[in-house]
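User: Predict the full complex structure for these chains.
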Amino acid sequence: MKIIVLLKRVPDTETKILINQEGTGIKEDGIKYVINPYDEYAIEEGLKLKEKLGGDSKVTVVCMGVEEATENIRTALAMGVDDAVHIVDPALEKAGPFSAAAVLAKVIGEEGFDIIFCGKQAVDDDMAQVQSILGEFLDIPQVNIVSVFELAEDGKKALLSRRIEGGDERMETSLPVIISCDKGLNEPRYASLPGIMKAKKKEIRRKNLADLGFDEVPGKGRSRILKWLPLSKGGECRMIVAEEKADAVRELVQLLREESKVI
Amino acid sequence: MGETLAELTGRFKIDYGLSEEQKVLRYSIRDFAENEIGPRAEELDEKEEFSLDLVKKMAEMGLFGIVIPEKYGGSEMDYLSYCIAVEEIARIDGSHAATVAAGNSLGIGPIYYYGNEKQREEWMPRLCRGEILASFGLTEADAGSDAGASKTSARLEDGQWIIDGSKIFITNSSSSISGICTVQAVTGQRSDGRKEISCILVPNGTPGFEAKKMTGKMMWRASDTGELYFDNCRVPEENLLGKRGEGFKQMLQTLDNGRLAIAAMGLGGAQGAFELALRYAKEREQFGRPIARFQAISFKLADMATQIEAARNLLYKACKLKDSGLPFTKEAAMSKLYCSEVMGRVVDQAVQVFGGYGLMKEYKVERFYRDYKLLTIGEGTSEVQRIVISRLIGCYES
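Assistant: Here is the predicted structure of the two-chain assembly.
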């Protein structure tokens, strides 16, 4: 079985994001970049499925990202993924979900696939759109936010659970399928030392837009981010202190009327 | 609120021309240490408990046999990678860094470097899988810095070594998975009248060999330390490690390698304590502002950061010398001396930054303060390091 896992490099979730002066991006100084945490569940699920099936099953990571993303791809390889495709092209740096999905569809189509795992969303822009658009491009079913995954006995269907408000939703789907993974699906493994050494010898196939037969970014201009703005700061909190409650209320009403002018 | 730990460490970006593998290793061990060891470190320290469960997890990560070739079950990494791994564990907890450092440098090291093929094949795979731990029986009650004063003896009789004597402060020697000890013993007298010292492999459980857990330690409380007794203990002649009479040389080389890992513990411990202090200083407010904005505190933190940076550069250089096959004895001694003493200065000031809270067990910095003290004593005291360095810079040459 050919298992594809999508990987995105994102700032560590503990990072305090600051918007740059021009509003075109974030301040990148000193940010630690990691594998999107939801993608780690996708990697683990891919590896578990491969281990269960044995034989000639293979897990391939596909990552669209900057040069430095090789570090994150290498981590996935160290976790046990067999090989990887790294799509790296400066033109793709500001690509929106449609463009990303179009490029990924091309790569995945060339690689071949039986099942595709990805995170339910990337924690940087939280768009959560790529997997659904990709499903359209590949014309296969796509199920979001999956917390239980099981391959049916015959290997042709998958049984899934989605955690929804107040319960679980059970589903069955044909293969191939795109599964977006939620927390709780599994416990992602760490990259072990022997795994890191093995990863050194694994192949990362680099591709740019031209290699994939694109003259320009597909779907260019379909969506465009105008500007990024920092969150507006909340107002100041003023405590009203008075010995008698009635006095405090009187002062509050007075402030609301005369200073804030809301009543 | 203050910055998170990730932001703080991100700002002190670590590169040093590390390979991609070394970067992946650092972050993987960091995740592992923060998530698996961190949450249990305080309790294990309090109960003075050696966790077999965590040893198993560390073994699954490949943390035993880091520099050992793959064919014996090791990870076949270089010494710099080994030290990065120890540094990252020590950043979270000294006890577990000690188990790994002693397990590799003192336990696995001598058996791999001096053992014959049969001995390697017999012991390496289980040691690298972490099923058993090996220890290095050197120090005795009356032979500490003066290691040559060892009294434990081994005499050859009918194809067997008969060992008598005792050892003290031996890491990884007395747990239920301690499997073998490399014992330094006096096996005779050399032609120049000095003692002939040899290393002999003695499996735990051999009749006449008793390993007793030492308790009541101030530091490394979640690591295993034993006192060993040999009373008419017999092992086959073939358990000799390397050649007869080479024990002292083997010990000196083993300690050279070991010093790098101890230095890594000092570096990692200093980094951990510094990060705790910096975060606290940015959160704790007195006189209406975070104490990090008072020069009295900010200068302490600046000094810590500077010393840690210098320590890391020195240790990584020593590792690179070793990995390049160049002499590194002097730099190893300097690294061990400097990194452990830097950790001493950093934990002292870190507790000071925490004020009263720093004295409470609830705040992790207290554990770092205690754990540091071993580092200027174990595997050659700071004074012994100064002897080594002063000799190597030519002080005693005419």
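The mean pLDDT of chain A is 93.
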